[in-house]
Design a protein that fits this description.
By secondary structure, the protein is of the alpha+beta class. The chain has two helices and six strands. It has a single domain, classed as 2-Layer Sandwich (Alpha-Beta Plaits), CATH 3.30.70.20.
Length: 70
């Protein structure tokens, strides 16, 4: 794997942008979004990066080898 998603779920506003952009990794659970899994590899970086960048609440972080990239 190599990449890890961290989400500040408490501060998610439930807009669903991440789900719309990257449904393979993001799902609505009640009124908030959450990642389906927290680790991924290079082939899924673009999708998750776009999801993180689209989040108006800025609650999605992506790390590679422990270093924050988003």
């Amino acid at each position: 794997m190599g990449y890890k998603i961290e989400q500040d779920h408490k501060n998610c506003i439930g807009c669903g942008a991440c789900v719309a952009i990257c449904p393979k990794f993001w799902v609505m659970e009640g009124a908030k979004a959450k990642p389906k899994k927290t680790e991924f590899d290079d082939k899924d970086l673009k999708c998750n990066k776009e999801a993180a960048e689209s989040c108006p609440a800025n609650v999605i972080r992506i790390f590679k080898d422990g270093k924050k990239i988003i």
